[in-house]
Each structure stands twice: as structure tokens, then as C-alpha cells.
Write a structure and sequence with these properties.
By secondary structure, this protein is an alpha/beta fold. Helix content is 30%, strand content 28%. The strands form four sheets. A six-stranded mixed beta sheet has the order 2-1-3-6-14-15, sandwiched between helices. A four-stranded antiparallel beta sheet has the order 8-11-7-12. α1 packs across α2 and α2 runs parallel beside α3. It is globular and about 55 Å long. The model has no long low-confidence stretch (mean pLDDT 97). Bound molecules: ribulose-5-phosphate. Ribulose-5-phosphate binds next to α2 and α4. It catalyses: aldehydo-D-ribose 5-phosphate = D-ribulose 5-phosphate.
Length: 232
């Protein structure tokens, strides 16, 4: 299986958890896109689902393929969210936000009774941090916010570049009109301490550490898709 087939395998396995009539959070990224394509085929066959997208990108794909969409204000309590991840550790701690949708992804996941992560095995890590941690920040005072993040990192014994995510003509802008700082810490031994410290910095809107949020992760490899469950 090539990289795309692995994503499809994870998405296919996740689809088995989606029941007729569910209120469904729909994630963002290339793996989530495969899930949307498979879901759209079922919808075309008469399967009913009420989707809440986690980004404008996902919304566009859903509209194009005929997946019915609602806003989170229409459906503030969801049955299930299916989303990808940039990293998954053994406790189902995640790094997300490689696609820049972390704020809406986290809000939607938090409004869901369950979150299932879909990924290929390259995303599995022992300790989070190999993937640069996306930190969504307000454009106002971004330099002061970056300095505050650097000081927090120092206090926690973390080091590495913290860079403003670029796009073609300037900084990358999220769906909410914010910037993203990508923090290359390499290894984050105490993700909880970092998460708590980041939310206490006023200019930080959200960060890509999703801790104790996923109930399961479906990991696709050459030998098939296996499911890791969160420990209670
Ligand atoms: O968090 C995300 C977007 O904000 C994505 O879920 C994450 O980047 C994984 O994307 P992909 O499936 O393309 O590897």
C-alpha cells in the first residue's frame, strides 16, 4: 500500500463507527479528505449524516461531494468526530494543526461524545514533539507572544526554533484570521505542563496538543488497520 492507500484504509475502518443519523464532526487534512470521500459515497446511497466541518477546506470538499453540513451552533453536541493527526503517542496524546485547523478541530472534538483519530503508522511516536507544535496566536502583539512562549519553553527545559508559519505572500492565516507559530521542540516530555502553560499566555489562541481528547486511534500499516483505545 502506498501512503494514500494507508490513509484510505484508516478512513475506511473509521467509517464503520459512523451510524445512520449521526451528528458528525469532520476533520481536516489529507486523511480526513479520504474519509469525506468515502462518507460521500455512503451518503449518495442514502446514508443520513449531519456533518460539522472543522475548516473551510473540509466544508468545500463536503459541499462538492454532497455531504450535508451544519454549523456547530446548529448542532452544538456531536456524537462522533473523525479527524487526522500529525502525531499520536501511546496514550493517544496528539499533535494536530499541521493543516492549520487546530482551533476549530479542538472546539469540534470537545463538543463530541467521542473522537476517533485516523492516521498511518508514520504518525505514531513514543513521545510527542518530533512534529513542530503548531501554536495559534493573535496577530496583535505576536512578537510579545512569541517571547512569552520562548520563556515558557525555557522554564520547561524545552528548546528549538519557534517560527511564524509562512504562506505565499506573508504569514499563514487560519480560518479564524490568526497566525501560527511552529515550535520545533523535538521532544516534549511533559505535554500537560506545556499545554497548561500555553493556554495561560494571553496572545495564544490555541495550541496543537490534544491531550485526553481522542477515545480511539485507527492506525493503518501494511498489515492492516488496528485500533488503539484510550485507557480509562
Ligand atoms: O491537524 C490537522 C489539520 O489541522 C490534520 O489532521 C493533520 O495535519 C494531519 O493531516 P494529514 O492527514 O494530511 O497528514
Amino acid at each position: 500500500m502506498d501512503a494514500r492507500q494507508l490513509k484510505i484504509a484508516a478512513a475506511q475502518a473509521a467509517l464503520e463507527h459512523v451510524e445512520d443519523g449521526m451528528r458528525l464532526g469532520i476533520g481536516t487534512g489529507s486523511t480526513a479528505d479520504e474519509f469525506v470521500r468515502l462518507l460521500a459515497e455512503k451518503v449518495a446511497d442514502g446514508f443520513r449524516v449531519q456533518g460539522v466541518p472543522t475548516s473551510e477546506r473540509t466544508a468545500r470538499l463536503c459541499v462538492e461531494l454532497g455531504v450535508p453540513l451544519f454549523s456547530l451552533d446548529d448542532l452544538p453536541e456531536l456524537d462522533l468526530t473523525i479527524d487526522g493527526a500529525d502525531e499520536v503517542d501511546g496514550s493517544l496524546g496528539l499533535i494536530k494543526g499541521g493543516g492549520g485547523a487546530l482551533l476549530r478541530e479542538k472546539i469540534v472534538a470537545a463538543a463530541s461524545a467521542r473522537m476517533i483519530v485516523i492516521a498511518d503508522e508514520t504518525k505514531l511516536v513514543e513521545t510527542l514533539g518530533r512534529f513542530p507544535l503548531p501554536i495559534e496566536v493573535a496577530p496583535f502583539g505576536m512578537t510579545a507572544t512569541r517571547i512569552a512562549v520562548e520563556r515558557l519553553a525555557e522554564r520547561l527545559g524545552l528548546s528549538g526554533a519557534i517560527e511564524l508559519r509562512p504562506e505565499r505572500d506573508g504569514p499563514f492565516l487560519t480560518d479564524g484570521g490568526h497566525f501560527i507559530l511552529d515550535a520545533s521542540f523535538g521532544r516534549i516530555p511533559d505535554a500537560e505542563a506545556l499545554a497548561n502553560g500555553l493556554v495561560a499566555i494571553p496572545g495564544v489562541v490555541e495550541h496543537g496538543l490534544f491531550l485526553n481528547m481522542a477515545s480511539a486511534a485507527i492506525i493503518a500499516s501494511q498489515s492492516g488497520a488496528r485500533t488503539l483505545l484510550a485507557k480509562d
